[in-house]
Amino acid sequence: MQKDFDVNPAHEAWKSSTESEKEQSLQILIRRMERFATAICCQKLSDHSEEFGPLVNGIVWRAVKHMDKFQEGSKFSTWFYRIAANECNRFLRNIKERCETSLEEEMPTNQAGLDARVDLIALLDGLEGEEHLLFKMVAEGQDFNAIAEALGIKRNAAIQRWDRLKRKLRNAN
User: Fold this and answer.
1) Can you tell me the distance from the alpha carbon of 41 to that of 36, in angstroms, rounded to the nearest whole number?
2) What does the pLDDT read at residue 2?
3) What is the reported pTM?
4) In this structure, are 9 and 87 located in the same domain?
5) Cβ distance 13 to 25 under 8 Å?
6) Residues 39 and 65 in one domain
7) SS3 string of the chain?
8) Exposed e or buried b for every residue in 85-99, given b needs 16+ CB within 10 A?
9) For labelling, which of 80, 98, 110, 154 has a CA lying 20 to 30 Å from the CA of 163?
10) Are residues 141 and 122 in the same domain?
């Protein structure tokens, strides 16, 4: 692990600092935690790099808030890593739930929705290649990971292309 990411010495310095040094040593510890959290996010969430800022801030905030729960018998970096990994996993679950919910809301089931689907099928005749495949896979209930793999792109790009296709189809009405 690189020196800039090693939070253990910074944590030790913060613990052993005097009252007048606490603020400065806490700032150093926070900067180290931010670098370490960013590295963890890069490792676990490479497809979501544009969203690291708020996530890193949340990880560091949670760690600072719960530092009193750190058990001295273990390494601070291990404890911090677990917080960061759990937050990354929570982030991925939230994205998955948002995508599944939005797809469920978009697929019509009542008669008006079925009529709209018929109109939509007429619009689909104008779709070719990748757009047609994207729409077909979403309509079949495929998740964005499978869609991304089929299109040879990242998951985030598949979501963005789906959003563009939805706008295109709405504008065609």
Assistant:
1) 9
2) 44
3) 0.52
4) yes
5) yes
6) yes
7) CCHHHCHHHHHHHHHHCCHHHHHHHHHHHHHHHHHHHHHHHHHHCHHHHHHHHHHHHHHHHHHHHCHHHCCCCCCHHHHHHHHHHHHHHHHHHHHHHHHHHHHHHHCCCCHHHHHHHHHHHHHHCCCCHHHHHHHHHHHCCCCHHHHHHHHCCCHHHHHHHHHHHHHHHHHHC
8) eebbeebeeebeeeb
9) 110
10) yes
Range of the structural domain that residue 13 is part of: 3-97
88 with 130, same domain: the answer is no
The per-residue pLDDT for 101 is: 55
Residue 56 and residue 42 in contact, taking contact as beta carbons nearer than 8 Å:
no
- Compare 125 and 51 and report the one with higher pLDDT: 51
Mean per-residue pLDDT over the chain, rounded: 76
Question: 148, 140 in Cβ contact below 8 A?
Answer: no
Report the 10 Å Cβ neighbour count for 116. Answer: 13
99 touches 143 (CB < 8 A): yes
In a domain, 102, yes or no: no
